[in-house]
Every structure is written in C-alpha cells, then in structure tokens.
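Colleagues,

For the teaching module next term, I've prepared a clean inverse folding example: a structure given as tokens, and then the sequence designed for it. I'd like students to try predicting residues themselves before seeing the answer, so please don't circulate the second half yet.
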C-alpha cells in the first residue's frame, strides 16, 4: 500500500511554476522577472493566508512595496540609460561617418606620405628663431629639411612635397616629422601635428567613442581630432 505524502496548500500551490504547455513564457528572462501585477498578486496571497494571530505589520508591508517600487524604478532607469547610450552612439557614428574621405589634423610626429607628401603644423609656446622641420624615414635617415625661419608664439604650418634632398619623389609610407628651433638662445624640440586622411569609422561593441581609421597611421578617437580639412 502506498502512502500519499503530498500536502495540499492553496498558497504554496499558487507559487508553483506552471510547467504545462499552457504556460506562456517565451524566454528565460520572462520567467525570472517579477512584474508589478505578480507582486501584488503574491502580496494578496500573503495577506489571505497569513497567521491571524501574527498578522503582517503595516510597516513591513510598506517596506515590501517600497523595495519593489525601488527595484522596478532602478530597472527602468537602467533601460533608459541603455537606450540613451544607443542613441548617443548612433549620433556619434553618423557624425563621424561624414569625415570619411576628409583630412583631419591629429597630434602626431609621424605622417603618411601617399605620394603627395605630408603637411601639418608646429606648436610653439614662445617666439622661436630658426625653426626647421626635418623629415626622416623610419630608420632615422634624413630625407629633407625645411627651413621656416623665425616665428611668433602659436602654430606655424609646414608642407613637405614628398621629395628628397635632390628633389626626387620618395616611396610612399610613413615618415617622422621633427621640429626644432631656438628659444631664449636654447635649442628646443617642438610638438607637431600632421594631417591624415580618414579611410573609415569604427564603433566598439561597448558603445565607446568612435574611432577614425587613418590612412597608414592606424586609429584615433574622434575627440583627439584638432581640425577637419578638405580631402
């Protein structure tokens, strides 16, 4: 003879998950989430089957409702932030995409010669005498020296036409830009920035800042661009 050890309790039965085909759950996420309707249904069941000699205190009930409202509010806020990030990312991607094919000024001491040479700027905090810009290949060999002369504090443009000391065109590739001059009688090395062509735009999966892929120079973030020029 078998003994039925199951105990029927309406409250416990109401908490059991329906595993029949009639259960209308589409995803695991829906199974694990507690909606506001589910919460109040459980609260009603709790009140209906509470011990009459130990009823739920009003403060405890309010605490439960407050906790649920807070959790629900945080969930909605997270969803709104996620949506906002997606919108900002899309807007940034659209803005960055307009730069494809254009030239941007980036803070770098290496430029890419695609046959037309390299141009850029030299930044000096103080007036500088005998400013020169030297173009070197990647092994340090001097390709050309451009004499600019005395300049005021600020930025000064330079252009290299892609030829060597003899005036012959050099191979395409990356070349190092070095700027030197005299300030207060001392030799100083100055910071430079070069123009580079934007080939494409990339966005990471983490919705971080857009990256501009530059011809021959790799990637740079959109916020690091100093200036946009015609391609």
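(Answer key — instructors only)
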């Amino acid at each position: 003879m078998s003994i039925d050890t199951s105990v029927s309790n309406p409250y416990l039965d109401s908490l059991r998950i329906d595993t029949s085909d009639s259960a209308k759950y589409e995803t695991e996420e829906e199974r694990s989430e507690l909606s506001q309707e589910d919460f109040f249904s459980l609260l009603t069941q709790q009140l209906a089957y509470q011990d009459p000699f130990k009823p739920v205190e009003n403060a405890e009930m309010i605490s439960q409702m407050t906790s649920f409202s807070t959790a629900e509010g945080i969930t909605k806020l997270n969803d709104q932030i996620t949506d906002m990030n997606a919108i900002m990312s899309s807007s940034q991607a659209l803005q960055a995409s307009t730069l494809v094919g254009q030239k941007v000024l980036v803070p770098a001491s290496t430029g890419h010669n695609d046959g037309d040479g390299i141009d850029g700027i030299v930044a000096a905090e103080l007036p500088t005498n005998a400013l020169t810009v030297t173009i070197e290949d990647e092994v340090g060999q001097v390709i050309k020296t451009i004499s600019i002369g005395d300049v005021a504090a600020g930025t000064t443009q330079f252009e290299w036409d892609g030829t060597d000391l003899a005036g012959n065109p050099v191979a395409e590739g990356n070349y190092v830009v070095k700027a030197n001059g005299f300030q207060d009688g001392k030799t100083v090395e100055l910071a430079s920035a070069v123009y580079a062509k934007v080939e494409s735009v990339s966005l990471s999966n983490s919705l971080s800042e857009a990256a501009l892929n530059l011809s021959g120079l790799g990637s740079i973030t959109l916020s690091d661009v100093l200036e946009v020029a015609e391609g």
